[in-house]
Amino acid sequence: MEYNAWAPRYERIRAEFGFPFPQEEAAAALLESLLPENARSDPLPRIRARLEGREVIVAGLAPLAGPPPLWRRPAEARPAAVVAADGATSSCLAAGIVPSVIVTDLDGPIPSEIAANRRGSLVVVHAHGDNMAALREWVSQFPGEVVGSWAGPPRGPLLDVGGFTDGDRAAYLAAHAGASRILLWGFDFEHVDETDPTARARKLAKLGWARRLLEDLAALGPVPIVTWNADGSLVPYGPGRKDASTR
Hints:
This protein is of the alpha/beta class. About 40% of the residues lie in helices and about 15% in strands.
């Protein structure tokens, strides 16, 4: 999604959660300064080289979902590209799947993401106001290809093509990069691990936005989006469905 179309949606999110924009800008400047020299150009061509024209499986981390069952795909089909949303990287690697792209704000299993990056995954690191300490600690430790994103207008090497949480941001990225179809695997909007009532309510509110943003993408975007269910069925993603979300 182009930034001008996305920005009004994020303004509503920022207002609801109270994200201070100066802090977002500071995190973006920090990430930009930490990116290696070879990541200081427009990242979209490198992402398109991995995703354009391909079926893209966006892997989330729903409870008990596990890795996407690539063995269920037709043997004659062109290999799909896997985009892992943060913590789903671990389950992918455990099944021998090296994601083409990893989308992360560095609050998941970062050593797994570094291991996948060493094996060829392109990592899209997202900067926001609450993860500056993680940016300082981890960005320099990725040995492979890294690019950056943030929640503001595209600037230099940092992109913003829409999305809020890692999972829906991964879907927006795949759509913008020219995927032929997007399969959502391991998404769950209804269940969270937090036991603290305040943290739980905040997480569920974020997942509510993730669901609505995916509905927007499915309704307005040029790329078909389907939910890949555990029984192998493919169901068009749309408003009111409760069998898909992100963690």
